[in-house]
Amino acid sequence: MPDKLSKELKQFLYTFEKKINIKKGTYLFHEGETANEIYLILSGKVQMSKITPDGQELTMRLCSEDDIVGELTLFTDGALYLLNAKVMEDGTAIVIPKDELEIGVANDSKIAVELMKWMSIHFRKTQTKFRDLVLKGKKGGLYSTLIRMTNSYGVMKPNGILIDTPLTNQDLANYCGTSREVVNRMLSELKKNEILSVEKGKITIHDLNFLKLEIDCENCPVELCSID
Q1: How far is CA 152 from CA 5, 97, 147, 162, in A?
Q2: Core-most of 27, 129, 179, 208, by most CB within 10 Å?
Q3: Which residues form the Cyclic nucleotide-binding domain (predicted)?
Q4: CATH says 125-224 is which class?
């Protein structure tokens, strides 16, 4: 994938040797805590989310192997974490002191450029997610989330594209910044019209083009249209 770490950046991050085991249900950090460390996920999954003023959880990213977590705090004095980082699947991560990473990047222009490229792609991905939520509302939020899920976890099957990761309606609601009840209604309508089906907690999209047409999909590159 184009948005994964470059070879040079990955080698640099692997020079930091402190590794930790991460356990499902725990947090690497919470929104508002002092940001002293950045994490490189080696295995497992970490969900990045933010709590809105009305108490709704908005899921921003689902991070996995070779994703950097906590990067938004770099080169900011007195930085606080902007998101919550909840471990969704057991794994391991490299712990990188924020100040040491900043020094290393400042002293190596090539690494600095590679990190800027990686961060730029993730900023653009965030912008496209907010665009869908703001311009297309709840339906746009759900449909674009499903499209992104097919790009990140899709497996071609005879009857459509299987999103090969378990998803609850609450999970989808968190990605859309809405309630589970709203997602329930929209999914029921999509199932009724045979746009998708659900079996054992996994969604199969039978008519991806329908979802794209409904939200005037701009067919962004996969590197921008994914859930990670």
Answers
A1: 16, 29, 9, 11
A2: 129
A3: 1-77
A4: mainly alpha
